[in-house]
Amino acid sequence: MPVSPGLTSVDDQLRSILDALEPLPAYEQPLLEAMGLPLAEDVVATSALPAFDNSSMDGYAVHHADVVTASDDRPVHLPVVGEIAAGRAGAKPVALQPGTCVRIMTGAPVPPGCDAVVPVEWTDEGTVEVRITQAPDEGQHVRRRGEDVSPGDVILEAGQILGPRQIGLLASMGRPAVKAHPRPRVVVISTGDELREPGRPLDGDAIHDGNSFMLAAAARSLGAIAYRVGIVSDTGDDFEEVLSDQLVRADVVVTSGGVSKGAYDVVKEVLTRSGGVQFTEVGMQPGKPQGFGFVGEERVPIFTLPGNPVSSYVSFEVFVVPALRKLMGRRRLQRPLMKATTTEAIGSMLGKRQFVRARYDVTRTGATVTPVGGHGSHLIGDLAVANALVVLNEDQSGVDAGTPVPVLVLDRDF
Ligand SMILES: Nc1nc2c(c(=O)[nH]1)N[C@H]1C(S)=C(S)[C@@H](COP(=O)(O)OP(=O)(O)OC[C@H]3O[C@@H](n4cnc5c(N)ncnc54)[C@H](O)[C@@H]3O)O[C@H]1N2
Ligand code: MOO
């Protein structure tokens, strides 16, 4: 069975969101700012690494032929005619004369003519004359110019995610900044007269605002910049004012609450009036009431997520995560579906895609998944215990224990 009549399928909803978005324009960003972002350029080496032949040991730069016979029984003695330390070698290298050696430190350029370095451990550490009791191989302990990277090499390709190793390479190449799509600035607004800030007392039927923290944290964990605006009342004017104030610093707005069929569903009411946002009932549980569109003169994308905490979280995972990744220039937008065997039977609603909170474990016999709590969209305690969502499709009414099922494993980069 396909999605129930009157409902939009998850796939169609996601497709129309992604089709409407383009990556944010890339620009040069300081290296550490670009951590975790995909590169928006191929990076070509402009210089060699190592930049010059240099010593990998503290020791003595020698002509290999002079020391080839050195042993404990027949040590070789050489005059020490100088010293080269890393960063102190100066611009003019002095050639090493045969029959002599130079004290050299790790990383210092080897003098022209040197074709091996004798580590100090194989010598008496002499400063005027040195006694050498072991011979290096020819070329040993000399790191050659360009043996790692040659000028013209493509060292990093567009699309590659910048992690510590790539950032280290760029810095080593002398690049202070690199072209990357910026982190989207995500403004998170929660709506509801019943909401109070954590830390504030609850009066009457008030509840604490969990969603805006959860959604801001989810945006941040994806590498976006999250601005948690906090609570806005169910009064249309308040919501309109806060939204228009916030647009200046938003690449994306995410709201929670106020989108179903109640008398005070402020988000739906205001944005239906202003236009530009499509409210849709999506064939999924949780997360049926969805809204997506553009607001303000700059046409800032807005996601209006349902207020039930689990619905909000799952909606973020299913729609906002791929969207933010597209804005950041990521190529893989959707979390991959893993396979795991369910340890329990799971029920599902025909005509809707069910996202079932579960614990994913890797055991000696393979991956398993165990549902946590029920399907209720208010069960935030169970949500926090879960680390995965089992995905049951629209044509499934449930699965038996022992069935392999597709799983979204949460909190992992992909
Ligand atoms: N007659 C109908 N009622 C409802 C339908 C429906 O189809 N017909 N859909 C239900 C579904 S499904 C969902 S999901 C919710 C979505 O409602 P809203 O997006 O309008 O959200 P609210 O009514 O504002 O709140 C729902 C629920 O969540 C709590 N909430 C809201 N914001 C927060 C927050 N920031 N932190 C913690 N908890 C929050 C709120 O107190 C409500 O309990 O509508 C169903 N109703
Ligand atoms: O879709 Mo609601 O999100 O089922 O609770």
Automatic annotation (TrEMBL):
Pathway: Cofactor biosynthesis; molybdopterin biosynthesis. GO terms for molecular function: metal ion binding; molybdopterin molybdotransferase activity. It catalyses: adenylyl-molybdopterin + molybdate = Mo-molybdopterin + AMP + H(+). It is an enzyme of class 2 (transferase). One of its GO terms (cellular component) is cytosol. Its EC number is 2.10.1.1. InterPro entries: MoaB/Mog-like_dom_sf, MoaB/Mog_dom, MoeA-like, MoeA_C_domain_IV, MoeA_C_domain_IV_sf, MoeA_linker/N, MoeA_linker/N_sf. One of its GO terms (biological process) is Mo-molybdopterin cofactor biosynthetic process. NCBIfam families: Glp_gephyrin, molyb_syn. This is Molybdopterin molybdenumtransferase. It comes from Marmoricola endophyticus.
